[in-house]
Amino acid sequence: MENSFASLVNSATSILILLPVKPYLDQVAAGLSLYLALREKKEVSIACPTSMIVEFNRLVGVNKITTELGNKNMIVRFAGYNARNIERISSEVEGQELYLVVIPNPGAKSPTKENVSISFSGVAADTVILIGGANETHFPQLVSQDLLGTKLIHIGIRNLALSPEKNVLSFAKPAASISEIAAGLIEETGIGIDPDMATNLVMGIEEGSRDFKGPDVTAATFEIFASLLKKGGQRLSREKLTNPVLPEEAIVAEIQPQPEEKEPPKDWLEPKIYKGTNIS
After folding, report:
1. pLDDT of residue 70
2. Which one of 68, 242, 249, 264 counts the least CB within 10 Å of its CB?
3. Nearest alpha carbon to residue 30 among 54, 46, 51, 50
């Protein structure tokens, strides 16, 4: 189909994934998984208007998320240095390396390494994928002139309300989590889900579904979760459960009658002493 997610990705030259303001772990997990998948085929970057919180450090690739909208142009700034001290700036190319030479006025000092500040601006992407969010206030970057004319795609569990002049191709649909939707879209592109992507999606589904207790959890949620575990996804949930219930077991628990409760042996009720084990 012309407007399928796979066809949109295939026709894109460069892709920017945008997370909303103050995103949830589920949104970050879904965005990072798409980033890890799409970078195998396309030039892709991922950005968020707000900084990541410590909780998100468990996600693979979180260090790739930047607060800067684009990386088309590099800006070199001399912070805390009087520009009047500079006589001229020249550039030289040796081989494939570029040298910028800052020549100070006679008697003036050159800028130090501490004075050099590097940043980026300008968006080279022709396709922007918006993750989650409810309206334009969650994506303040959309007012940037750099995004005029770019193709907008939205992935979420509810529709995104934008101004009429902004055309968005939406892949939003009801689900327990955005990571659940992202997993299906990655599969649609034909890009395999590796253990890193699967681990991110596993954490996203657990968080987004409220540990499978959310009202939008369905059998499909468990099926996708089980598939991600088979692909190498690791459960790194906030609460470490001694005996975690796998999705297959959860489904069986819903349809199987509960066994009769039996009185435990007397020694079970007595105090016990456990010795810790160091794990390297």
Report:
1. 60
2. 242
3. 46
Q: For every residue of the chain, which 3-state class applies, written as one string? A: CCCCHHHHHHHCCEEEEECCCCCCHHHHHHHHHHHHHHCCCCEEEEECCCCCCHHHHHCCCHHHEECCCCCCEEEEEECCCCHHHEEEEEEEEECCEEEEEEEECCCCCCCCHHHEEEEEECCCCCEEEEECCCEHHHCHHHHCHHHCCCEEEEECCCCCECCCCCCEEECCCCCCCHHHHHHHHHHHHCCCCCHHHHHHHHHHHHHHCCCCCCCCCCHHHHHHHHHHHHCCCCCCCCCCCCCCCCHHHHHHHHHCCCCCCCCCCHHHHCCCCCCCCCCC
Q: How many residues does the chain have?
A: 280
Residue 261, pLDDT score:
43
Assigned CATH for 5-71+123-230? 3.90.1640.10
Q: Which tens digits make up the pLDDT trace of 30-48?
A: 999 999 999 988 999 999 9
pLDDT tens string 59-103? 999 999 988 776 666 778 888 888 888 888 888 888 878 888 888
**Using one digit for the tens of pLDDT, what is the confidence trace for 2-16?**
689 999 999 999 999
